[in-house]
């Protein structure tokens, strides 16, 4: 996908020599099976993921939803994965400390995805990344951090309740407009 290609180019600029893109980067964590209560099917999927990750030592997980699955839900079901898992911001932040980057200007806001903030407890690191790539402090939405709103795009929400999902997305846009945000960023591809 385009997101992976763009990420690859960006990480190469930060000179990470050990990074490779493997087939696990596009593998399904089994979230929909798990959330729908299909325990047997979920466990079968989790075991397939376990085999793929068996010889991997580090995984950057773009989706906070999947990060939550790998680090919290899998262990609760007895599935132990060998790699160390990072969300994108935790992986990139140390690289930005000495990097020369073209800082972005304007009224830039940050949106905490519900999975990133509530399930992965990643609220400060994304803001630190944004501080290093923007010229001004990123603006906050009225509902942020652990109190963030759902954007309506995660899990199967948009498929199971399209109207509610659209309403959720509109609430986020209204919050951004009320703050004068021109560009709204999130570190969750679902959002």
Q: Can you characterise this structure?
A:
Helix 4 (64-76) links the parallel strand 1 and strand 2 (84-87). The chain is globular. The model has no long low-confidence stretch (mean pLDDT 84). A 3-stranded parallel sheet has the order 4-3-5, with no helix packed on it. Strands 1-2 form a two-stranded parallel ribbon. The chain is built from 9 helices and 5 strands. With 191 residues, the protein is mostly helical.
Gross morphology: globular
* DSSP strand count: 5
Helix fraction by DSSP (H/I, runs of at least 4): 40-55%
- The SSE string, one letter per element, is HHHEHEHEHHEHHE
Report the β-strand fraction as a percent range.
5-15%
Give Rg in angstroms: 17 Å
Short description:
This protein is mainly α. 48% of the residues lie in helices and 8% in strands.
Keywords for this structure?
globular; 191 residues; mainly alpha; 9 helices; two-stranded parallel ribbon; 48% helix
Write the layout of secondary structure elements.
Elements: H1 2-13, H2 31-35, H3 39-53, E1 58-61, H4 64-76, E2 84-87, H5 88-96, E3 108-110, H6 114-119, H7 124-133, E4 139-140, H8 157-160, H9 162-178, E5 183-185
Parallel strand pairs: 1-2, 3-4, 3-5
